[in-house]
């Protein structure tokens, strides 16, 4: 078990390095000199040269890369071109908003997704099943901003139940959380249903029924436990995918989170900030996937014993 | 003349269904998928013949007709520059469909070739390609596309490139897995034993057997590419005005959401219809063509 965990962690390290390297290279093949971009076109070349030297931009790329990684390991992602602040600090300021949004959204997705999936599986091929699965496919197919705009129009503008934008009160967080959770709810519902339907065909379910257990008891006590494993992993994976999916939700509702930060960084051509946010988010997602993977191993005795 | 009572030999010896048979099965079994195919066909026709189908020119501005409510003259109203929204949506279908088809085709071609090589040659080739795929898959695709858009700047052509580069890894994984199992089959063994060249085995013997999965994957990748373009354009880092991209229309209409909601909702609904249709068709095709993918 322990060696397997170590092995799994060891596999993620090259991926982590690859991700950082890929972002680093991609952002540096930008045409134009970063110091010029930062200062504007009409600045004395001598000044630009001095700034380049100060920022280490005149050094070969591999030197820059190692310096960046060394600093990043110490928690220093460089200085923003536009805001003139430490990128790590900026990220840490907006990160809590994204975390709150993602966790709330995950809660929404789990509650809606699980219950819809379970009901659909119980009423397999019935009316509710078709209705829920239709909604689930809609949820997966709707652009995030469409859900956002419709909910904004109906619940914030027409009914005035929630504020249109902002993220400073719990009330304001509800709409963004539903929007972000809606998509994942669709995939969780689909997966819960298909797993449950599959498990229900097993012999032990027939045994449970034969010994006189009521249908609800069969489902809760026997089927659900076996159907939930892959769903649990997926639920964990959804949290990390929400961190990146939050970009759109945050921009519609004006949530000052990390996704907005990335979009702003692109708009203002703030390379260190974009680099920091993307690397930070991606590392979190890789860690999230790692944890989901390990969770699966811990929870499923068949896999655990097969090590 | 063929005797009607003569037993169907091909059925007896278990000959594989032809593509036509599979199409018929699809229409018979899955009405929703068939309907989706029809809708997609109609949208494609509308996009191709957009200048004929659209009631107005999608770029023609009219300051006297700004922000008109939907009416008989303008079925979906007009936008802030007096352009007919319906016409813009019809022209926008050209963008969404091209974005859905071309970059998906390119990225899947890249993924297929890399997957074939990785699966067929194994060893170091396999290791190098699949580790690269791991790195690509570790990125959330929207963020990666955003980085590419930062490097290259906005605009539709750059979305093309970004989406072509970003999405090859999942195809590579699936093709590699199929190649691994196919290369142990007898027909590959037979081809090898009569001295068929390696690249011929890969592209003439193994690739055609991956085709059903690839078609399903293609159908299911199209909607995600369309959504990516719409999202990028919505964030303002994709298509630029005056383009009739649906995502861009939605974000431009967002300013008028509370007074003229159709400006942003109509293009969003257009995206949803196309994406749903491709998803339904993809699901249906998977059931007919590819039991292997269904198990996964």
Would you give an account of this structure?
The complex is a heterodimer of chains A (307) and B (296). Chain A has 307 residues and is mainly alpha-helical. Chain A has two domains: 2-87, no CATH class; 92-259 and 282-304, MetI-like fold, CATH 1.10.3720.10. Chain A is built from 13 helices and no strands. Chain A is flat, with a radius of gyration of 24 Å. Chain B is mainly α and 296 residues long. Chain B has a single domain (36-60, 73-295), classed as MetI-like fold (Orthogonal Bundle), CATH 1.10.3720.10. Helices cover 72% and strands 0% of the residues of chain B. Chain B is built from 14 helices and no strands. The A-B interface holds A 14-15, 18-19, 22-23, 26-27, 29-30, 137-138, 140-146, 149-150, 152-153, 157, 241, 243-245, 247-248, 251-252, 262-263, 265-267, 269, 271, 274, 278, 281-282, 285-286, 289 and B 131-132, 134-135, 138-140, 142-143, 146-151, 223, 227, 230-231, 234-237, 247, 250-251, 254, 257-258, 261, 264-265, 268-269, 271-272, 275-276, 279-280.
Descriptors for this entry?
heterodimer; A: 307 residues; mainly alpha; MetI-like fold; 2 domains; 13 helices; 0% strand; B: 296 residues; 14 helices; elongated
Short recap of the structure:
The complex is a heterodimer of chains A (307) and B (296). Chain A is mainly alpha-helical and 307 residues long.
Any chance you could write out the topology, listing elements then pairs?
The complex is a heterodimer of chains A (307) and B (296).
Chain A lengths: L1 H27 L5 H6 L5 H11 L5 H13 L13 H36 L4 H15 L2 H15 L11 H30 L3 H8 L4 H39 L4 H10 L3 H29 L1 H5 L2
Chain B lengths: L8 H4 L6 H11 L1 H18 L1 H4 L31 H37 L1 H16 L2 H12 L3 H11 L1 H15 L3 H8 L4 H37 L11 H8 L8 H28 L1 H5 L1
